[in-house]
User: Which sequence fits this backbone?
């Protein structure tokens, strides 16, 4: 890192030299990632705005570096809060790619961990475990899912605090080497930050993921199906929209994750339906299309209850 | 006649060159990571050339993508053992190789006293020769 800085300062531009933001933007290929983000992630307005802002900041920073105006690298540790299934992990993955394209992280891989990967079971176990994970994440993004589990105030002999301490140190000292993204549900994360003020102050970006509307969820469902070479018949689409509206009112609704599970079950029913009518020969369209009956068979419609699979979270 | 000026221990790669800078160490680590080798940091204060098994500083590091993690460990080791020999070795898990494929010293004691020649008289007038490091006259941990 230090040698790239010195080589950059060796070629400082003159004060009146023009630089082209547009050209820099093209060269970074970040547009491609941002477009992909727009295309593949439905809704999430505040999230996309913030990501654009961060991309712009890093781009401007790169130009400023050509005039030797900035030496400090901005802190990019982030905190994603939101209900289950709102796309926190997906966005974190994209974030790694964006930061890589903008040259903020060197490798651009994402290491996704939870409490189990960081906190040990006996004295002296936690520090090596946490350090190992951190070393793996260097050059990329460390994504800590359900980060609030790290801190368990009810158990004072819990080793989570030790892990947090090491994380804080690395977040401060190795800012060039890795970006830490915490994720979790809003209320619990707030509580977590309340008891770990050091953590809160070291995270510059707090991004809240809003819940999806029924229309957005239908859009997501269609994208998911298209990725697997399936599609709704016009009736099925209407039925699925109804399904979503009903399902949203039931408990344990996990946004896009619930949609994915519902689609998996619909595919199951479609296969069963095709199998029952096995006598007639099937066309490609038959194999691709989900009919209304595949969706209406759900228990959400019949009993107003969840389908048999319990949905976790 | 002094054959090895300054008594520098020459073992592993690059040991006839001036000490590697951190940037050079990083570049070598990057090369090893690119080959898919697992790196580890080891230290010792017994410089005998046949001392192959050095103490491990932490576990070998598997699945790393970036040299920064290993350099961090090297610097930790330097902080703990500023006056020991420290080396970085790369292990290749490729079937048929399964051994250390790269190894170079990244830290040396400030003063290396070097080796003396020890002569032993045996049967008849036969002489046996061996080398002996002056540093190992002192107990472990107090040598440098």
Assistant:
């Amino acid at each position: 890192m230090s040698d790239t800085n010195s080589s950059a300062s060796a070629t400082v531009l003159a004060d009146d030299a023009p630089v082209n933001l547009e050209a820099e933007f093209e060269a970074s290929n970040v547009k491609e990632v941002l477009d992909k983000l727009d295309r593949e992630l439905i809704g999430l307005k505040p999230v996309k705005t913030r990501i654009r802002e961060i991309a712009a900041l890093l781009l401007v920073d790169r130009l400023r570096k050509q005039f030797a105006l900035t030496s400090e690298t901005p802190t990019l540790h982030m905190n994603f809060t939101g209900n289950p299934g709102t796309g926190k992990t997906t966005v974190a993955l994209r974030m790694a790619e964006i930061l890589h394209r903008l040259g903020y992280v060197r490798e651009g891989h994402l290491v996704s961990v939870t409490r189990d990967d960081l906190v040990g079971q006996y004295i002296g176990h936690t520090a090596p475990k946490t350090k190992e994970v951190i070393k793996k994440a260097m050059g990329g993004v460390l994504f800590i899912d359900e980060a609030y589990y790290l801190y368990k105030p009810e158990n004072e002999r819990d080793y989570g605090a030790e892990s947090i301490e090491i994380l804080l140190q690395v977040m401060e000292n190795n800012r060039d080497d890795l970006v830490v993204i915490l994720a979790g549900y809003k209320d619990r994360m707030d509580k977590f930050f309340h008891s770990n003020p050091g953590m809160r102050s070291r995270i510059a970006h707090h991004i809240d993921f809003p819940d999806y509307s029924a229309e957005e969820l239908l859009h997501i469902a269609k994208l998911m199906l298209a990725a697997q070479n399936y599609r709704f018949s016009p009736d099925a689409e209407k039925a699925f929209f109804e399904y979503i509206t009903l399902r949203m009112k039931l408990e344990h609704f996990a946004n896009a994750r619930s949609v994915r599970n519902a689609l998996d079950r619909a595919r199951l029913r479609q296969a069963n339906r095709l199998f029952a009518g096995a006598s007639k020969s099937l066309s490609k369209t038959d194999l691709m299309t989900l009919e209304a009956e595949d969706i209406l068979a759900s228990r959400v419609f019949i009993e107003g209850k969840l389908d048999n699979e319990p949905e976790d979270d | 006649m002094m054959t090895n000026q300054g008594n520098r221990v020459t073992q592993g790669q690059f040991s006839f060159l001036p000490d590697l800078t951190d940037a050079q160490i990083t570049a070598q680590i990057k090369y090893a990571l690119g080959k898919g080798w697992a790196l580890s940091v080891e230290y010792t204060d017994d410089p005998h050339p046949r001392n192959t098994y050095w103490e491990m500083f932490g576990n070998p590091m598997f699945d790393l993508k970036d040299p920064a993690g290993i350099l961090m460990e090297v610097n930790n080791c330097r902080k703990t053992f500023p006056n020991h020999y420290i080396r970085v070795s790369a292990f290749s898990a490729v079937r048929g190789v399964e051994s250390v494929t790269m190894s170079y010293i990244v830290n040396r004691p400030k003063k290396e006293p070097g080796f003396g020649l020890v002569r032993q008289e045996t049967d008849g007038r036969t002489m046996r020769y061996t080398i002996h490091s002056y540093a190992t006259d002192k107990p472990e941990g107090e040598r440098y």
